[in-house]
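Bug report (template v2)

What were you trying to do?
Predict the complex of my protein with manganese (II) ion.

What happened?
Run completed; filing so the output is reviewed.

Input:
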Amino acid sequence: MQGKIALEEHFAIPDTLMDSAGFVPDSYWPELKGRLLDIQERRLAEMDRHGIEMMILSLNAPAVQAIPDTGKADEIARRANDYLAEQVAKRPSRFQAFAALPMQDPELAIRELERCVTMLGFRGALVNGFSQTGAHKSLLYYDLPQYRPFWARLEQLDVPFYLHPRNPLPEDCRIYDGHPWLMGPTWAFGQETAVHALRLIGSGLFDAHPKLKIVLGHMGEGLPYSMWRIDHRNGWVKAPPKHKAQRKIRDYFNENFYLTTSGNFRTQTLIDAILEIGADRILFSVDWPFENVDHASDWFNSASLSENDRLKIGRSNAASLFKLDMPARAAGQLSQAAE
Ligand code: MN
């Protein structure tokens, strides 16, 4: 399929580059480093070769979220966002941007969000899970009450919030003792992010702010597969749920969430996601440079899907969710000649 839009696609600035070391064997680090620091050359060539018209770019992880000094977190976020704005300005028809935010301080996060959306034209924010602050033991998840003004402003600005993974801190990893292979994309990323998403829902956030739009990568971090059980646990016990949300967890998942295919190129998993949330709320993504554009595109272009769903997931859902100024296309117009 030509004309695809991808939206979990990362870059690094020198200040955040080393946060991505350690996710691949040392022998691959020079390659990953080159991919992260590049925007206009190798990346663009990969996009052209595999039918990706646009990438919405975001900073690598955990980056700003892992800087316990709030002032420094704010400084790095602004530096990364300014750099990204310059890069997007070179090719706005090929690149758009998500803001990095110093969530350590809700007021600073609001200020930077406003600057990025209203002055720099960013399409939303991408945040790498919980933020560390002050004494580094303090973990800030965004269901906490001090974040309600942030969510109110995000809802007013009407831009999506991409909740991206990070690893739990070492002191919170006892379940993984002796099994470091479970960290990162294998398992810990998804577990950490799924729980954070459930915390947001269970806090009643979406009752207070029903128009919020949250994006999850990796086909929903396992949540579609578990959604029925989350609401029905011990169904014969007619006990009311213990969370603060007014309706079933599934209702908010269906109304406030969007999922991307980043790093999860599996038709069985996509079909389960479609059965839970519908093809209108699933969006193609790669997770470049941690995954390969050809792996994502070759799979997606030939996955067993209706051509109408391929068009929605590959392009039109993203164009409408992010209000991108891109021409509408019919499914047949975007087929690849080689099909
Ligand atoms: Mn990613």
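What did the reviewer find?
Residues 4-334 form a domain with the TIM Barrel fold (CATH 3.20.20.140). Residues 8, 10, 164, 217, 262, 287, 290 surround manganese (II) ion (CB under 6 Å).
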